[in-house]
Amino acid sequence: MKNEIQLRKCTKCGKLFSERGAVSRVDNVTIICSDCGTRETLESIGVGEKEQEKILDTIHNTVHTN
Ligand SMILES: [Zn+2]
Question: Do the strands 8-9 and 31-32 form a parallel or antiparallel pair, or are they unpaired?
Answer without folding.
Answer: unpaired
